[in-house]
Specification:
By secondary structure, this protein is an alpha+beta fold. The chain contains 16 helices and 32 strands.
Length: 586
């Protein structure tokens, strides 16, 4: 390929014209759906209808999937899946069934391929995409069924635009995985948008007035030029981004999304580690293996308790323990549970009265330590960055942001910043995803996490190219292979709808049907070769070639400002234009 030329072109990306936008918030711990008609959005963007889980007084249900023994058919989802699997365990008929819970985090921070598998609660494996697709299909069909009395005859399924939420810190492969799972669930790709969770929450909260934001300050009251940090604390991840209000009323990202696996489930993990320390690791493992129904029930009880653990109250935290836990302790340790507690390292802080485990508040607060410490340290690091020194407020959203422990820690550590915690912070992402579907350009700019580029061959220059990369092409010209041809640079501001790079490549005459371009990413701003340390192949793009003759040029325009990367390719000889998806899962 030859040297490139660059130019910039604006691509108009219109607001949504669909009659109805439906969003699925696929969470680690809880999931749900919501929707609104376009006329409702035009009247009041916060007027969003969300699912009510009957009998549970909740607008979110647990992310649990029960699949029949054939490994293909969904039996139930959410509360119903938990209840049905409990019945199967009691009847000892569960061994051939598949039960998955809190499986979303399997997509985080690992190499994903199309054939990646998930392990269920009993160690059986299924294709991960099958599990995700069945869950998404349930939520999609449930929305249509439940809301049918409102949308029947008013809107056709083809007039619904769907939005699926993902953490902002997920990589492109994970986003593509979710898109393909949604397609398998029956959602057409051109009717689906991927929304980043903290961005969705930010968009929703921008529309909340003070009286509905639950605070003295509303996000909507921030004027142009004001900056705020979004702390999206969910079940699995804590996502952190920094936004600035633009003169047009939308927001732009100032600092790349970052975070980690420090959400509410990390507190659950600490509670489980506490039980193992109190008794023994083998006890907890056998309890979970032999009495999964009681184990799940115990975690549900803890979920209720942890929401009310207060840093300013000294009352004991009382947990009712399942009888099966007592019998497991006796079986493995040959001691009564009370005797084990009384002789443990927690003997002065924890006691057992009947079936009730009573913990001093210091013990209960310690469950939050790892999660909160990691979150606070990361927020401090983000706020110390030069580009973020104008931040005036912290917006806390996500289910875990309702924790009194996390709330106080943030307020204590950042006393100079205004705190915004909207009412029902746990629904801000879900409802914000609906807003995003109606108004995708509410986020006008994003920051590139990586330097992205294409591997190409370039004429060899001994003054800058290593000899190890030199080769001679078919025309006898000395070339350098594997040059990192940069399209965007890490930290670069990317305007939504704008082609950040427009580059022309010359292909070889041998490329008669398709040209494959390899796309690489690096944290460094100055990678030279795609083989440099820290560079990694992230995807491939196959460009069809139909032209003939000497002019074998293709124009590649890459648009990075959206939640997914768009590649537009034009074959110069024919004028043919393709929008080519990058395959991040190959």
């Amino acid at each position: 390929m030859n040297d490139i030329r660059k130019s910039t072109t604006i691509i108009f990306q219109p607001y949504s014209k669909h009659l109805l936008v439906a969003a699925i918030d696929f969470g680690t711990t809880y999931s749900s759906w919501a929707f609104s008609f376009k006329h409702e959005y035009d009247s009041d963007p916060t007027q969003v209808s969300a699912k009510q889980w009957q009998g549970h007084e909740s607008q979110k249900g647990p992310t649990c999937v029960l699949i029949k023994p054939d490994g293909k058919t969904l039996d139930s989802f959410g509360f119903d899946a938990e209840a049905k699997y409990t019945e199967l365990i009691e009847e000892e008929e569960h061994n051939d069934w598949y039960f998955f819970r809190r499986f979303k985090m399997k997509l985080w921070n690992q190499k994903l391929i199309r054939n990646s598998k998930l392990e269920d609660e009993n160690g059986r494996k299924l294709l991960a995409r099958t599990v995700f697709a069945l869950a998404i299909k349930f939520l999609k069909d449930d929305l249509w069924d439940v809301a049918n009395d409102r949308i029947a005859d008013a809107v056709l399924q083809k007039e619904i635009h769907w939005v699926l939420t993902v953490p902002a810190i997920w990589d492109n492969a994970a986003k593509q995985f979710m898109r393909e799972a949604a397609e398998e669930a029956g959602i057409k790709s051109d009717m689906l948008s991927i929304a980043l969770e903290p961005e969705a929450a930010s968009l929703f909260c921008r529309h909340l007035p003070v009286e509905r934001s639950g605070d003295e300050l509303s996000l909507g009251s921030l004027r142009a030029g004001k900056q705020y940090l979004v702390l999206d604390a969910g079940g699995g991840t804590v996502d952190i981004t920094v936004h600035e209000v633009t003169p047009f009323g939308d927001v732009k990202e100032l600092y790349k999304a970052s975070g980690g696996a420090w959400g509410g489930t990390k507190v659950d993990d600490s509670f489980e580690e506490f039980l193992a320390c109190l008794t023994d690791k083998t006890v907890v493992k056998k309890f979970k293996d032999d009495h999964l129904d009681d184990y799940l029930d115990l975690l549900r009880r803890f979920e209720v308790k942890k929401r009310n653990i207060d840093p300013d109250k000294d009352s004991k935290v009382v947990m009712s323990m399942p009888l099966s836990f007592f019998t497991t302790v006796k079986e493995l340790l040959n001691k009564d549970f009370k005797e084990v507690v009384d002789h443990s390292s927690y003997s002065k802080q924890v006691s057992l009265s009947g079936e009730k485990l009573k913990m001093d508040p210091t013990v209960a607060r310690n469950f939050f330590k790892d999660s909160i410490d990691s979150t606070i340290e990361h927020v401090k690091d983000v706020l110390q960055k030069r580009e973020n020194r104008g931040v005036e407020a912290i917006l806390m959203v996500g289910g875990f942001s309702e924790s009194k422990m996390l709330n106080k820690a943030v307020k204590q550590n950042f006393p100079g910043l205004k705190m915004i915690v909207p009412n029902e912070a746990g629904l801000a992402v879900l409802k914000g995803a609906v807003v995003f579907g109606h108004e995708p350009r509410g986020i006008s700019e994003r920051i590139s996490k990586y330097t992205y580029g294409i591997a190409k061959d370039s004429r060899f220059n001994s003054s800058k190219h290593p000899e190890s990369a030199e080769f001679t092409d078919s025309d006898g010209v000395n070339m350098c292979k594997d040059v990192f041809d940069k399209h965007v640079v890490a930290g670069q501001s990317l305007k939504v709808g704008e082609a950040q790079s427009e580059q022309t490549y010359v292909t070889r005459p041998s490329h008669t049907s398709t040209v494959t371009i390899r796309i690489f990413a690096a944290k460094s701003k100055t990678p030279f070769l795609v083989t440099d340390p820290g560079c990694r192949l992230v995807g491939k793009c196959n460009i069809p070639m139909t032209g003939t003759g000497a002019d074998r040029k293709i124009l590649v325009r890459m648009i990075f400002g959206g939640t997914e990367i768009d590649v537009e390719c034009t074959e110069k000889a024919t004028g043919n234009v393709w929008h080519i998806p990058i395959d991040f899962l190959s």
